């Protein structure tokens, strides 16, 4: 057993053969799609009775297939949504104001109770 030598020396592996024995990588894309069945078409899905398909990086409603929403209806819904968001923001503001008023009134009430207790204690000491 050598002290400074390396006793483990694996044999070199032989070079690998060709990565693929198939000639499919030589075919052009359209031939490969026909041969291997890679043409899936556009992805589609159905949500709540409305059919959607994925085109140009976005999900688009398919008009005419399952009663898609027309442009006027979508515009009306957007306006209604904007109105409801504004109303919601106004109501949140009102709630915040009411909470501020409540906390101010509560603080004043506690101060008055404290002053009343102090006055009672001073009047008892005088007697």
TrEMBL record:
Domain of life from the UniProt record:
Eukaryota
Q: Which GO terms describe its cellular component?
A: centriole; centrosome; ciliary basal body; nucleolus; nucleoplasm; sperm flagellum; trans-Golgi network
A molecular-function term among this protein's GO annotations: protein homodimerization activity
> Which InterPro entries is this protein grouped with?
Chibby_fam
**Pfam families assigned to the protein according to its UniProt record, in alphabetical order:** Chibby
Per UniProt, the ranges with Polar residues bias are: 1-10
Which intervals of the chain form a coiled coil? 74-122
Q: Where is this region: Disordered?
A: 1-26
* One example of a Gene Ontology biological process annotation: cilium assembly
**Record's keyword terms, sorted:** Coiled coil
Official protein name in the record: Chibby 1, beta catenin antagonist
Q: Which organism is it from?
A: Panthera tigris altaica
From the broadest rank down, the organism's phylogenetic lineage runs: Eukaryota, Metazoa, Chordata, Craniata, Vertebrata
Recorded name of the encoding gene: CBY1
């Amino acid at each position: 057993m050598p002290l400074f030598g390396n006793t483990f020396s694996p044999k070199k592996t032989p070079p690998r053969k060709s990565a693929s024995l198939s000639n499919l990588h030589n075919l052009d894309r359209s031939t490969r799609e026909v041969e291997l069945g890679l043409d899936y078409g556009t992805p589609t899905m159905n949500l709540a009775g409305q059919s959607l398909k994925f085109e140009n990086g976005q999900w688009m409603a398919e008009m005419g297939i399952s009663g898609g929403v027309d442009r006027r209806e979508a515009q009306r819904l957007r306006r209604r949504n904007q109105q409801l968001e504004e109303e919601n923001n106004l109501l949140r503001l009102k709630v915040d104001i009411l909470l501020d008023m409540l906390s101010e009134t509560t603080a004043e009430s506690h101060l008055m109770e404290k002053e009343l207790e102090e006055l009672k204690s001073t009047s008892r000491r005088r007697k």
